[in-house]
Amino acid sequence: ITHYVEGSRKALKRATADIEARLPGAAVSTSRVAIVSVIGADINVPGITARALGALHEASVSLIGLQQVSRKTDIQAVIQEEDFDTAICALHEALVEQQSGSVALAEPLRPAA
């Protein structure tokens, strides 16, 4: 079971200790992660998830987890915290800036209101 939680180091250590006490046979580990998202009503195009993952791979960003909602308006990638800036730049370049031979998106992404 994996849980992504936010909190102070003290609170997270206390929660980890509680889990270990209640489930003595469980292997419990923690790590600092970040979540990067691609969000928009206009990302429902074939191959967008593959292009996003390809951009992260090319930028040497390791993927820990991935979620895409069924409405195809949101893709979330869980990555190591230290890869956050690299991931944002790679996704922006691949999905917003690239307008070469193939169309990056059906329509350009619109800035959030």
Short précis:
This protein has 113 residues and is an alpha+beta fold.
Describe this structure in words.
The protein is of the alpha+beta class. It folds into two domains: 1-30; 32-97, VC0802-like (2-Layer Sandwich). Helix content is 35%, strand content 18%. It has three helices and three strands, in the order αβαββα. A three-stranded antiparallel β-sheet has the order 1-3-2, with helices on one face. α2 (48-58) packs across α3 (84-97). The protein is elongated.
Q: Structural class, judged by helices and strands? A: alpha+beta
How much helix, percentage-wise, in residues? 25-40%
CATH H-level superfamily title of the largest domain: VC0802-like
- Say what oligomer this is: single chain
Sequence of strands across the biggest β-sheet: 1-3-2
The count of DSSP E runs of length 2 or more, i.e. the number of strands, is: 3
Spans of at least 5 consecutive residues whose pLDDT stays below 50 are: 99-106
CATH topology of the largest domain: VC0802-like
* Total of domains: 2
End-to-end distance: 36 Å
